[in-house]
Task: inverse folding
């Protein structure tokens, strides 16, 4: 049994893109998880079911040897409500904007200014990820971004923890258990 890592994501849902086939003109790619992949992802993410996971991606060259993948992830999960354990259906919508560069590329290094501060455009893509060989797994990327959209505490609408019920005044005036002992000592 392997511990959870990116390889697990890759085996659960994989869609390999050959880097050599990508040009400066964006390629539109539609990826969708089949029943086996959705079952594997449900197990990986510890959810009841993955009803849907698909993405429309735009893949193009970035700088000389990098690849940029942009798009929208769309999914639907069934999770157990943290209060009632009843099934809760959750929609996932995530934007992807990720750059990949070959392992060892100088573009993979973090750009810093003179003071050594990282230069990251908050609106831009995340730091480049590296790829090995000539393929990038767009399926694993979609699964990774979808996982970011999973609610860790899914709740059915209206479900409340029992501990949150406010007590009323009459209950607050109930005698303390020690009051009973006080009377008992007198006898």
Result:
């Amino acid at each position: 049994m392997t511990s959870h890592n990116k390889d697990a994501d890759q085996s659960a849902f994989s869609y390999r893109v050959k880097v050599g086939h990508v040009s400066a003109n964006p390629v539109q790619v539609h990826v969708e998880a089949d029943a086996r992949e959705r079952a594997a992802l449900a197990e990986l993410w510890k959810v009841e079911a993955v009803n849907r996971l698909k993405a429309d991606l735009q893949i193009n060259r970035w700088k000389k040897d990098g690849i940029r993948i942009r798009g929208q992830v769309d999914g639907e999960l069934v999770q157990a409500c943290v209060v009632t354990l009843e099934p809760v259906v959750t929609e996932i919508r995530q934007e992807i904007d990720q750059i990949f560069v070959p392992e060892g590329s100088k573009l993979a290094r973090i750009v810093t200014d003179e003071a050594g501060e990282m230069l990251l455009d908050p609106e831009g893509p995340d730091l480049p990820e590296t790829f090995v060989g000539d393929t990038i797994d767009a399926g694993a990327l979609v699964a990774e971004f979808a996982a970011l959209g999973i609610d860790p505490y899914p709740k059915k609408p209206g479900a409340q923890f029992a501990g949150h019920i406010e007590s009323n005044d009459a209950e607050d005036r109930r005698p303390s258990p020690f009051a009973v002992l006080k009377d008992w000592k007198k006898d």
About this structure: Helices lie at 6-12, 35-45, 138-148, 169-172, 177-186.
